[in-house]
């Protein structure tokens, strides 16, 4: 074999070795990138699993809060109903003596013809009843002689009179009641509206002297 051919084979071998080395280097880099991507994938996977777990924990916590809130609402409804029942029971106990007084007045009326005694008994029951209402914060609405107030009074009749000021309640037709500051029912009232004066009344009547002068 000639010297030129040996040099040519050697050069080709060196080139092949160089190309192989480059490919091995490229494969090494690809493996490193693949390993890095795999690690990133595992990290993302772990984060996703952690997020899913955290989301499940939040969901469980939310479910527990909802259940606790529902139980709280039921408990509050029950306690409020108990308070209402206690208030009603207390009110009924206070009204039982009024019922006793009324029964005694009825029994007394059956055996007695004394109307004044019956009236006195009924008045006693009425006063007792009003005392209990006042004790509970229920009071009558002042009406007759007061200026008409649409928040407290219900006008069912109007009269025209100069004997009373305008817009004044002249008669109470049915009592009104309020609980503290809340109106339970307005008082039914009759309200005055002053008569309108005629247009001629604005002019002064002629004096006697002028009338005499006109006659002369």
From TrEMBL:
Keywords: Chaperone, Coiled coil, Cytoplasm, Stress response. Residues 190-216 are annotated as: Disordered. GO terms for molecular function: adenyl-nucleotide exchange factor activity; protein homodimerization activity; protein-folding chaperone binding; unfolded protein binding. PROSITE patterns: GRPE. The keyword Coiled coil applies. The keyword Coiled coil applies. GO terms for biological process: protein folding. It comes from the Bacteria. It is found in: Cytoplasm. CDD domains: GrpE (cd00446). Residues 13-82 form a coiled coil. GO terms for cellular component: cytoplasm. Participates actively in the response to hyperosmotic and heat shock by preventing the aggregation of stress-denatured proteins, in association with DnaK and GrpE. It is the nucleotide exchange factor for DnaK and may function as a thermosensor. Unfolded proteins bind initially to DnaJ; upon interaction with the DnaJ-bound protein, DnaK hydrolyzes its bound ATP, resulting in the formation of a stable complex. GrpE releases ADP from DnaK; ATP binding to DnaK triggers the release of the substrate protein, thus completing the reaction cycle. Belongs to the GrpE family. Homodimer. This is Protein GrpE. It comes from Aerophobetes bacterium. The gene is grpE.
């Amino acid at each position: 074999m000639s010297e030129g051919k040996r040099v040519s084979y050697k050069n080709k071998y060196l080139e092949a070795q160089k190309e192989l080395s480059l490919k091995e280097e490229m494969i090494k880099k690809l493996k490193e990138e693949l390993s890095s991507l795999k690690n990133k994938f595992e990290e993302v996977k772990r984060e996703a699993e952690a997020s899913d777990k955290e989301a499940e924990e939040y969901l469980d916590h939310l479910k527990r809060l909802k259940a606790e809130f529902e139980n709280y609402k039921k408990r509050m409804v029950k306690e409020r109903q108990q308070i209402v029942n206690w208030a009603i029971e207390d009110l009924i106990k206070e009204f039982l003596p009024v019922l006793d007084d009324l029964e005694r007045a009825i029994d007394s009326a059956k055996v007695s013809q004394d109307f004044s005694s019956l009236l006195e008994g009924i008045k006693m029951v009425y006063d007792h009843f009003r005392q209990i209402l006042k004790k509970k914060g229920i009071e009558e609405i002042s009406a007759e002689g007061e200026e008409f107030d649409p928040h407290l009074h219900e006008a069912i009749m109007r009269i025209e009179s100069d004997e009373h000021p305008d817009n004044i309640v002249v008669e109470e037709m049915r009592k009104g009641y309020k609980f503290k500051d809340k109106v339970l029912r307005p008082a039914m009232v009759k309200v005055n509206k002053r008569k309108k004066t005629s247009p001629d009344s604005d002019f002064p009547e002629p004096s006697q002297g002028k009338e005499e002068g006109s006659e002369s």
